[in-house]
Structures are given as structure tokens and as C-alpha cells.
């Protein structure tokens, strides 16, 4: 596999792990240096995906990296907190609103 292909394959694994609630896989990929806040062409990040799907464990892990932008918006103008708030995922919403996140 070419280096460029390997990089994109790893990023795809990271996105899929966020979507499928695979916390351990995300931890391994973060240790390998995968950037936690990359956005796809629709400006959706792994945090956005995990939050939208209600995956609190993955959301917590990504928030703990302190390298994710909790205010990043997709091309539709929605931030990662939008769908958890709309779907009443209170624990996820509270994770975004913790005082230590206020400076982000």
C-alpha cells in the first residue's frame, strides 16, 4: 500500500470506529498519531459522528484529547451538539457544556 493510501485508509478506520462505537480502536489509532479532528468534505468530524449517533464513550474519549473543535460546523451549519440536543442525549450534551470546555 502506498503511504498516501495508508494514511487515508487509517482515517477511514477512525471515522468508522467513531460511527460504530469502537472506543478501543479509536484509542489505538490516536496512539498511532491519527489526527482526531479531521473533517470530511461535508465538514463532519469523528466527534460529530459519535455525538450524532449517541456514542457517549467515544464522545468522552474525543473530548479528552482536547484537540477537537466542539464548535466546528458541518456544511449544513450544525455543530456536534445539535443532534444530541435534538434527540435528548443529555449526557452527551452535558459533556459538551462542561466548564473546562468553555475555552474551546
Query: Span from first to last CA?
Result: 37 Å
Roughly what fraction of the amino acids lie in strands? Answer: under 5%
Number of helices: 6
Q: Kindly report the name of the CATH homologous superfamily.
A: Ankyrin repeat-containing domain
The secondary-structure element order is HHHHHH
CATH hierarchy class name = Mainly Alpha
Number of beta-strand segments: 0
Q: If you average the pLDDT, what whole number results? A: 90
Task: Describe the sheet with the most strands.
Answer: none
Number of domains: 1
The name of the CATH topology is Serine Threonine Protein Phosphatase 5, Tetratricopeptide repeat
Give the CA-based shape: globular
Task: Walk me through the structure.
- With 104 residues, the chain is an all-alpha fold.
- The protein has helices at 3-19, 23-31, 46-52, 56-64, 82-86, 90-97.
- Helix 1 (3-19) runs antiparallel to helix 2 (23-31), helix 3 packs antiparallel against helix 4 and helix 4 runs parallel beside helix 6 (90-97).
- It is globular.
- The protein has six helices and no strands.
- It has one domain: Serine Threonine Protein Phosphatase 5, Tetratricopeptide repeat (Alpha Horseshoe), CATH 1.25.40.20.
- Keywords: ANK repeat, Repeat.
- ANK repeats lie at residues 42-64.
Provide a compact summary of the structure.
This protein has 104 residues and is mostly helical.
Secondary structure: elements and pairs:
Layout: H1 3-19, H2 23-31, H3 46-52, H4 56-64, H5 82-86, H6 90-97
Helix pairs in contact: 1-2, 1-3, 3-4, 4-6
Amino acid at each position: 500500500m502506498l503511504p498516501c493510501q495508508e494514511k487515508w485508509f487509517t482515517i477511514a478506520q477512525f471515522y468508522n470506529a467513531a460511527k460504530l462505537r469502537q472506543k478501543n480502536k479509536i484509542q489505538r489509532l490516536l496512539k498511532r498519531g491519527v489526527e482526531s479532528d479531521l473533517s470530511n468534505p461535508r465538514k463532519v468530524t469523528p466527534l460529530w459522528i459519535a455525538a450524532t449517533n449517541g456514542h457517549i464513550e467515544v464522545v468522552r474519549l474525543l473530548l479528552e484529547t482536547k484537540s477537537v473543535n466542539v464548535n466546528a460546523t458541518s456544511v449544513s451549519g450544525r455543530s456536534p451538539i445539535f443532534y444530541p440536543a435534538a434527540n435528548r442525549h443529555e449526557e452527551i450534551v452535558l459533556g459538551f457544556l462542561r466548564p473546562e470546555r468553555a475555552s474551546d
